[in-house]
Amino acid sequence: MNEQRLVKATAYNAEASQTDDTPDICAWGDKVRPGIIAISRDLEKLGLTRGKEVEVEGLGTFVVLDRMHKRKTNQIDIFMESKQDALEFGIQKRRISWR
Fold first, then answer.
1. Domains delineated in the chain
2. What is the pTM of this model?
3. pLDDT tens digits, the chain, 99 residues: what are they?
4. How many whole angstroms separate alpha carbon 13 and alpha carbon 32?
């Protein structure tokens, strides 16, 4: 991997209270599923665009298929099926890398 960045990492679930009125559909129309992340729009400008594979330190490889609200910066949001897992993940700092 060539590019690296330390980011704020959070987790989300497919619930309307955490997303919008179509919680199972990502920003670009993909279906929410394990192995995807949402990225803040400033990271898109660095090349983290739809379909890009991203290595998240200590967690493995994820695919960018969702984007976060424009107020979020330098952040990734990892989809988790379990609300409890997402709550336990909390807010962390993680290094990400990509080509």
1. 3-98 (2.40.40.10)
2. 0.89
3. 589 999 999 999 877 666 667 777 888 878 889 999 999 999 999 999 999 999 999 999 999 999 999 999 999 999 999 999 999 999 999 999 999
4. 9
